[in-house]
Amino acid sequence: MTHPLAKVDGARAMIPTVLGQSAQRIPTGGKIRAGIKVLTKKAAEHQKARELYERGVEAGHSFERIETEISQAIPELKTPLVPKNAPYFTVRGEDFPNPEIARQILEANGEDRGDGVVRLYRFPVVFPADAWQTVMPHELVCWGSNEKKFWSEYSEDGRTRYCKCYAPVPRASSGQRAIRIFGGRKATLRDDNSGLCDPEACPEYQDRRCNLSGRFIFFVPGIKSINAFELITHSFYAMNAAIQRFQTIGFMRGGRISGFLDGQRTPFYLAKKLMEVPHIDEQGRAVRVKQWIIDLEAPIDVTALLRPDEGVEALSDRANEAVAVLEGCAGARHLEGTEVFDMPTKPAAPPAQPVADKPEGVPRPAAPPSPAAAEKRSDVGRGATSDDEVGAIYAEAANLGVPEPAFEKYAEKRWGRGWKLNASGRKRARDEVRGFAQDAPGFKAKVDAEMNVFS
Predict the structure, then answer these.
(1) Cα dist. 101→60, 94, 104, 121 in Å?
(2) In whole angstroms, what is the distance from residue 312 CA to residue 256 CA?
(3) Is the CA virtual torsion 453, 431, 407, 10 positive or negative?
(4) What is the pTM for the complete model shown?
(5) What is the spatial distance between Cα 400 and Cα 100, in angstroms, rounded to a whole number?
(6) CA separation (Å) from 380 to 156, 373, 387?
(7) Low-confidence stretches of the chain (pLDDT beneath 50)
């Protein structure tokens, strides 16, 4: 039995493999913490606990290790540490496969703000994918002693939120040993709540054992690592604000949030911002408390992102503009994209020649194109703002077996909701559809995978 080839981006062929059927994940190799942990009031009363805590912090040990050492030394202290909000991030060597990376991050981006300690208050990041769901995965999750106990997961259509858990490990017919499981433990719907995630009716969520958990996945410019880094957060406000920033930048960049933001290699920045956030207390009253919230910054002139002549993707636009200039197009833009100059609106007429002077059989030279015709041809080349261009993209996708509604959802997820308004976004969509012109099954398979497998 043979497997059909599936073309990706109209070029490379891929076939199913034993390990290639799961959703793509970006490998990470180090954690930057959003805050710190300190001794509880009860633990702080023990001299031994204070010594172990101070020694561990000075040595750069992880808070998990410090907590374990204190619990082993003082058994009555089951949870000696408690999280504390701080205006800086925590970078410790034990949170990285290579502790040297933690030192490099602090050395490159750390600051001493007057207390004699170099800490990480703000640092640059570059995201490795364009879908914000990929670079900021999140879920409602309840942790057991050693692993995830329950977690949330959406259906393929995105309308139903399920509550999942690990399925029991099956045993051999003899019942004396567990069956070897290939590919890790299987997930299944939770039985005692019909497999539905309803936080208001969930005992774990109400007891604060199930909470929102997310993480930013990124690279740090200047830090050499094949694996990305992650920053874990449990703040709804931080993640919600980041989603809005991602969508805004993606809208103006044709759906792209990956890589540097402009030609000057400007990255995103992660920092801390002191904000007043609403909080519901035990009596159900709405109160506001101050907290240091993770803030995603994009320190650029956002209006520059709307210019189609920035970066490699606009080479075709620049070429069309150069042709328009050479042909005498009115109002042609300067090739540098920063100035505007006026071309003659009407080329000078050549001197009249008597008809008798024209040798018989020699055709007259063609008249230069009119400004309107040149402008129209330039607009067609640039594909500026015409609804016909978007309609043509829909038609080509439909010819490949993907109807307009399905392709529109796919395009919005892949390039952002502003892809139709952005020249770069329209160009990406057009190039991708035409890349599959001879492979309709491959195109359908790619759209289905993006909407269902990677959703």
Answers:
(1) 13, 10, 5, 17
(2) 14
(3) negative
(4) 0.63
(5) 51
(6) 39, 11, 12
(7) 1-13, 308-314, 330-363, 365-366, 369-385, 453-455
